[in-house]
Design brief:
Shape: elongated
Largest sheet: 5 strands, antiparallel
Distance between the termini: 24 Å
Strand content: 25-35%
Number of domains: 1
CATH class: Alpha Beta
Number of helices: 3
Number of strands: 9
CATH topology: Aldehyde Oxidoreductase, domain 3
CATH architecture: Alpha-Beta Complex
Radius of gyration: 16 Å
């Protein structure tokens, strides 16, 4: 994995970042006067997981593949939910507690489509994108799930 300040491995991967995520900016690049609904989802690093205190989250991925999978999911949502436009951004590297690890913004003429598109995208990213999470504890670290495999689209 590249050093946290090395972004060269993410060149050409607009759905991935090693920096902080600004969900308001993500939504702002989508919304127009034709969209009456803006729905956002922000996943943040939480302090506790399965009874243990987490100090830090770390995300790793195969960037080119992860970006391609997220782009496909966004395109699916835009095709599936009438009038929806969607953006998604996932963080890689270290993610301090309280910081956003993933954000999805969906806009649509009406709230039903915006909510549905937003939920579809986050659920599919969690299910299909080759992105792995490691929880850092005071006494060690553990990968969530099996980092050697993922469900293919």
């Amino acid at each position: 994995m590249a050093a946290p300040d090395d972004r060269s491995d993410l060149a050409g991967c607009p759905h991935l970042t090693r920096g902080a995520i600004d969900v308001a900016a993500l939504a702002a690049r989508l919304a127009t006067a034709d969209h009456g609904a803006v729905c956002t989802f922000l996943g943040t690093a939480r302090r506790h997981s399965e009874g243990r205190e987490v100090n830090l989250l770390r995300y790793d991925a195969y960037p080119a593949m992860a970006d391609q999978v997220i782009a496909a999911i966004v395109a699916e949502a835009e095709a599936k939910f009438r009038g929806a436009r969607v953006a998604a951004l996932h963080r890689l590297g270290d993610c301090p507690l309280g910081d956003a690890s993933v954000a999805v913004a969906a806009v649509a003429p009406h709230r039903v489509e915006a909510f549905a598109a937003c939920r579809y995208v986050i659920d599919e990213i969690k299910s299909r994108a080759p992105i792995w999470k490691q929880e850092q504890f005071r006494d060690g670290a553990a990968w969530v799930g099996d980092p050697g495999s993922f469900r293919a689209p």
